[in-house]
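Tokens as discussed.
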């Protein structure tokens, strides 16, 4: 079989997206914080786009204003930009044409990322936390299989501060080991890095750190072990009376504790990222009716530069290239403002439809959430499902029931005997409430929860209950049981 090169003509249709349409889609996907950054970046890059200044006091400098300001007829562009009020001749963007199945040469991956953009590996891999760090150290401790299981249980019950949330009795009961084994494994864990790990409270954590430094018999160790409350209030006189030491010694010991020790050894290894949530839309109940209000705080009102419009209209000395540059910038600014208004209008429509479908949720709470899919809202507002998906992704609404992501209102249906279908989120709320109200000495198993749901005509398999419980980040029954 010979290899050869051939030229072949192929006729195909594909959607080629302009830069303006890509910008409109990108704006639609941004959340509240990202939108504010995008607006500022666009204002910096496009000189024809500017922020509308607040109106000045009419009584201030009236004479100077009347002599310098000329009356201009409002153009179409200025009508569009005033307070995001778009004229009716603005064409509705057909988002269906730009769903996820288009084929074009454009790819967001080819765009040059900003200098402070996170690495792609941060999205495809998990950052090693305290648990992984402790497991790596335990692998070098020469533990047998039995001791390894006990050690995993111990480090698995450390909170984000590095403190042990179970006592020796619970370790013995859960792992079915002897007391000597439990105490030995706890000592092994407390010998790991960082110093103070595996303590039951701040006092023990600080003492373990001093013990690692060989200062277990020092004044600092006595203070953190027996007088931590006085240390927190910096009551030097009471510490001096309790320890029989002089104030300068006590001050040196406390300064050493503050400078060299950490009360929460696990915090530096915490992998929790702080995510700040700013609602994109508010739903308020006023005089018995729900009112939808978009969050426009800190979003500047944009307008086209009157200076550039005047230059383009009246300055005959401009070169062709300069006119083309100004014209392009004005068109881009005009399209940006239209896209911004289109984004706000689409979010409002989606939220209005969600309020209509999930009215009982806004009135009574999460247990009354109804099954809802993207297609229901898309059909209601006559848009494509991909548009609704973009609008609801990573955007939040402030409701009388709390702050929720827009995706929260979309849930699959769970059938009931002799009743209406329920949303899976409503059932999760029921499961959470059952577990909160359970007897901690005899907690409910997944099978018991399944039977309780069956009493409410909700048929749910045990494995489905376990899946929902894991999604709620609730521990299994053996880890929720408290010692009698």
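Sequence:
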């Amino acid at each position: 079989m010979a290899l050869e090169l051939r030229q072949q003509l192929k006729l195909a249709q594909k959607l080629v997206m302009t830069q303006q349409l890509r910008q409109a889609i990108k704006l639609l996907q941004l959340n509240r914080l990202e939108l504010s950054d995008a607006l500022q970046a666009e204002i910096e890059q496009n000189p024809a786009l500017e922020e509308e200044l607040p109106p000045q006091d009419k009584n201030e400098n009236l004479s100077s204003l009347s002599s310098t300001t000329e009356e201009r007829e409002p153009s179409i562009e200025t009508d569009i930009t005033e307070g995001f009020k778009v004229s009716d001749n603005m064409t509705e963007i057909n988002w269906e044409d730009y769903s996820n199945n288009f084929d074009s040469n454009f790819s967001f991956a080819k765009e040059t990322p900003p200098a402070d953009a996170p690495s792609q590996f941060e999205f495809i891999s998990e950052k090693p936390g305290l648990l992984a760090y402790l497991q790596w150290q335990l692998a070098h401790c020469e533990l047998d299989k039995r001791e390894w299981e006990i050690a995993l249980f111990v480090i698995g019950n450390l909170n984000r501060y590095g403190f042990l949330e179970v006592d020796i009795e619970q370790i013995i009961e859960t792992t079915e080991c002897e007391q000597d084994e439990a105490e030995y494994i706890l000592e092994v864990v407390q010998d790991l890095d960082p110093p103070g790990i595996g303590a039951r409270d701040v006092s023990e954590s600080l003492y373990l750190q001093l013990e690692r430094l060989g200062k277990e018999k020092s004044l600092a160790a006595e203070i953190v072990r027996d007088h931590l409350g006085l240390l927190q209030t910096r009551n030097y006189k009471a510490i001096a009376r309790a320890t029989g030491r002089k104030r300068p010694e006590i001050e040196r010991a406390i300064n050493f504790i503050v400078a060299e020790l950490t009360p929460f050894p696990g915090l530096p290894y915490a992998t929790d990222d702080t995510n700040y949530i700013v609602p994109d839309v508010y739903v308020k109940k006023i005089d018995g009716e729900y009112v939808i209000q978009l969050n426009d705080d800190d979003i500047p009102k944009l307008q086209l530069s009157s200076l550039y419009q005047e230059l383009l209209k009246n300055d005959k000395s401009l070169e062709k290239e300069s006119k083309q540059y100004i014209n392009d910038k004005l068109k881009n600014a005009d399209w940006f403002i239209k896209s911004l208004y289109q984004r706000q209008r689409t979010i409002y429509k989606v939220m209005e439809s969600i309020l209509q479908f999930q009215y009982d949720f806004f009135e009574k709470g999460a247990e009354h959430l109804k099954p809802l899919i993207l297609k229901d809202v898309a059909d209601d507002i006559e848009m494509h499902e991909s548009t609704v998906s973009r609008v609801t992704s990573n955007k939040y609404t402030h409701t009388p029931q709390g702050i929720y992501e827009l995706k929260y209102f979309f849930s699959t249906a769970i059938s009931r005997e002799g009743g209406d279908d329920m949303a899976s989120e409503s059932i999760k709320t029921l499961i959470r409430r059952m577990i909160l109200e359970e007897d901690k000495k005899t907690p409910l198993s997944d099978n018991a929860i399944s039977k309780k749901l069956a009493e409410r005509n909700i048929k749910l398999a045990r494995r489905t209950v376990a899946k929902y419980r894991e999604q709620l980040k609730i521990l299994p029954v053996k880890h929720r049981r408290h010692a009698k």
